[in-house]
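User: What would this chain look like folded?
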Amino acid sequence: MKKIKIKIPDGLLEGKICLAEFIHPEQQEIAIVLVGDNMDENKLKTHASHIIRVCFFLLVDGEYHYVKELESFSFNDFRTAQALLLSLPSMSAFDLMIYQNGIGLSQSNMLQ
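Assistant: Here's the prediction, encoded as structure tokens.
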């Protein structure tokens, strides 16, 4: 498999880390990068919220370059933040809309 190069601008990380990188399976020129705090459960317990930023990159001359931030998600607990990280690559558009409106994937969140 060919090694990919994602060029992350200096200011994009600013105290954050790259949590995950996804290349679109059908449109290889598109990449999504998730940026946020280290997903350490103990650290998340000491902070009121955790933000994951979803960033859009395009392939230009063999490197993926930052285009824009698509969305940011704020979480109050580790399990919900981790669920987004694990499910985003296979998430349906419907599930993504639910997350974008702050509901989450579990039905119990909607009843609260």
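The chain is about 30% helix and 35% strand. If you want, I can go into more detail on any region.
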